[in-house]
Structure formats: C-alpha cells, structure tokens
C-alpha cells in the first residue's frame, strides 16, 4: 500500500504551490529579509515510540513546547503510523513539524532529547541482566544522539532511570548539568495528589517531595509538605492521631506502588508520565527556573561520597542550561542515612556495568 504523508507523495509538484494563494510582499532593499530578526526554532526528539514515548510526544505537542518533534524507533511501520496519526491532527494544533526515522540522524540539532527506549524485563531475569541489556541498547542510542546534537539537554525516562541516567552521562560525554533523569518527579505528583485529596484542595497548591532512588527505596520527605505556603505536616499529625510511623510508611508505599497499580489495571503507564516529562520540558526549554525532584549527579550531597558518581532524585532548579542548582534539603539523620544507603546500592550497580 502506498504511504502518503503529503500531496507531493500523490504526484503533485510542491514547488511554488502557495503562489496561487499568497502574493509576495514587494522587496525593499533597505529592509532585506536577511536582516530581519528570526525566532530560533525549538526541536525536541523522543527516542522510543512506545506508550510512554508517544504520551510524552503528544503532551509536548499539545502544550506547544516545540516547533519540531522528531520521533525515533526501531520499528519503522509503527513509527510511521504514530507520526502520521499526529500529523493528521495538524488542523487542531499549533503548527509543529513532525519528523520520524529509525536513524538517529533525524534528531540532529535537537534542543532536548528524551530517551524512553529500554529493554523489558523477562520473566525470571535478574535485575543486573536487564541492566546490562539496557546498557547495550544505550550504547546504540546515546553516542549518535550526542554526536548529532552536541549542545542538547538529555532527559532519560527509561527505567531503572537513576542507573540509566548515569549510563547516559558516561556515554554522552556531556556535563552532568545537561543529563537529567525523570526521577521522582511523577512520584512527587502522586504524593501531592494523595495529600490534596485528603485535604480537599488542588494538588497544585500542595508542595511535597519524594527523593532518592526512583523505586522501592524512595523517600517521602514529610517536612516538605506545605499547602498554600503553610507547613502542613505538624497540622496533619495534630489533627489526625492516626498519622503514626506505620501510617506514614503506608502512604509512602501507596505512592511507590502507584505505578504498579496502574500497570496491573491497564497494562502500562502513559498519561501521567507524559505530563510529568512535559512539565520538565517546559521548565528546561522555557528557562522557567522551576524546582523539580529529578535524578541528578548527587555526589557530595547529604553525606554521599564525593567519589561516588551516582544519580538520584533531589529537588533541582531547572532552566535552559539544564540543572542550575540543587536544593539542600533539611533532612533528619534517619532520612539522610536512608538516602546514603540508596546511593550506595545505586553506586554498586553502576560499578558492575563496566563503563
């Protein structure tokens, strides 16, 4: 079946096609077009056209965060189908150029590259085996992406995100400030959602952070909970005697298990991570200087050894240059010890990868 994405594919000559509709403005040599200011176009590339990658691309598209979106996947037919499906919505969206290809050259000159591709864990497969397979996959993705877009920001979404962000950093040769993992940005949103539902307020008015590893050992920092700028944790404990340590751990487990619940019900997660990554893209590309809990190079923070180049989530200020700074959280000694244990486990995994 002939594949069509434009009238040119149907045999129509595109050269000068618009001349019958628009009359050119008379040339004025004193105001030549070459001297007219041009807004620099923004390009975002998404590596991996699965459920997560397409949710991210669709959300970035509808939020008008890019002038061009490039999609890359190893499956050419699925990739073209996804690209056409988005292109066919052109009449309902801001004008965005959508390109796709199996060759990473299509990502050239990207401002932001989002990596969602990753190997899935086979039944009974050891975690280290899965990590090794993902490292081999990243060896095929990251170096060509870095070569085609040497000034890009690299945002890793693939799991296990903290270790793979470290892998992307090593393979890209980029400074750590330009390699970021999606980390616990979505976990923190789930945390905020639960608190907001309990207090009957909008989740946007709740501040609450999950930090550390994106996974079972992530930490809920209870002292960070605030509503409309007012500290909320003490009030919650004073008004609800059930907020004991066991209850708090139950809430943390509910946050950590949120993804598993969604996967158990629909088979995968997509929309929430799409919005989460789009929020990161907006902060980065628009230089918003917003603070997000994302996976960053954490050596030297909270007693983590300077010699351990490990990535885990801490609240970071994000802008056009990437990570502009990391917040020094006021952790309890118990929380700091948990963070260091998590960092030690991640570092040991990273050391097994021979990078």
TrEMBL record:
Enzyme Commission (EC) number: 1.1.1.27
Active-site residues (renumbered): 214
A Gene Ontology BP annotation from the UniProt entry: lactate metabolic process
Class of the enzyme per the UniProt entry, highest EC level: oxidoreductase
Claim: Magnesium is one of the keywords in the record: no
InterPro entries: L-lactate/malate_DH (IPR001557), L-lactate_DH (IPR011304), L-lactate_DH_AS (IPR018177), Lactate/malate_DH_C (IPR022383), Lactate/malate_DH_N (IPR001236), Lactate_DH/Glyco_Ohase_4_C (IPR015955), NAD(P)-bd_dom_sf (IPR036291)
A GO molecular-function descriptor: L-lactate dehydrogenase (NAD+) activity
UniProt KW keywords: NAD, Oxidoreductase, Stress response
PROSITE patterns: L_LDH
Binding-site list for NAD(+): 48-53, 73, 134, 157-159
GO cellular component: cytoplasm
Pathway: Fermentation; pyruvate fermentation to lactate; (S)-lactate from pyruvate: step 1/1
Coiled-coil stretches: none
Catalytic activity: (S)-lactate + NAD(+) = pyruvate + NADH + H(+)
Assembly description: Tetramer that arise from random association of LDH-A and LDH-B.
Family as reported in the entry's similarity comment: Belongs to the LDH/MDH superfamily. LDH family.
Name of protein: L-lactate dehydrogenase
Lineage per the UniProt record: Eukaryota, Viridiplantae, Streptophyta, Embryophyta, Tracheophyta
